[in-house]
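pasting for the record
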Amino acid sequence: MLGSDPVIDLRSTLSARALQLVFRPMFRYQSAGSRVQFATKPIAKPERITVPTRHGNVRTLLYSPTAESVAAWHAAGRRPPVHLIVHGGGFIVRVPMQEDNVARYLASEVGAYVLIPDYDTAPKVRFPVSEEQSYDVFRWIQANAQSQGWDGDRVSVGGPSAGGKHALSVVTMAIDDGGRLPVAVTAEYAAADMALAPSARTSAKRNPVVPPQLVDLIQRTYFKGVDLTSLLASPNRYSRLAEFPPTLVLTAEYDTLRDEMNALAADLAERGVQVTHRQFDGVDHGFTHFPPVEVAREAIAMIGEHLRKAYA
């Protein structure tokens, strides 16, 4: 059964279900497909594993580096690192495979294991289920390093769009927990301030990828009845940002989320965090998957370089 959180009204539930139905064909039509596959080594089809969380089991894609990459890590006296990608989808869509090109690149060029959890979204659940599932997967990665053959001390987290917001929340939860932090975090065209009114996110583009109507739907479903100024909902308001690990923030000129992420990058840097920040001109939300291909290539290469430095 699909299920729906009872707090979410029927009209909003139906709108969210409609978005879920149209997303896959729309993504296939608009994305650059194989042209944004930049892995130079043959990476096997991802294994499908199940990770337990406080909100039930989460199906998760596991990409493995090549045997040669694993052997190279072992020869250096180390196990391969791990990157957790929290996929995007506006807190509503569940298509982990949309991050296939990034996952394959990191497995190929960085030699990392990559996990992409299929976390629950609205209208089935509301905040903070997705954040807590993502965090539980992160902790599972660390706790099961011995049996899985990877390095539990070199685990990073990142993601695009809503997934980037969840990645930031994984860091804040890890700080509050007092446990091992991710060694790095990446946030690609992410969100950081869910308390902003939909009309406050603007773009010079007439029809941006993330219009006010979508933000309104997100607030009426996943964040229904939530204090949007809470630190877990809006990580830009977190009081301990200075404790963040090295952070990569990638934004887009026409993305309606760019201002809050540009501000977060500046705030992190001012607090002494090691920040790499790049705004790509002439593009909108989703630039790691959509044309122009040159921007996607550069952005994904920046993710790889950021993680490579953190794993060194």
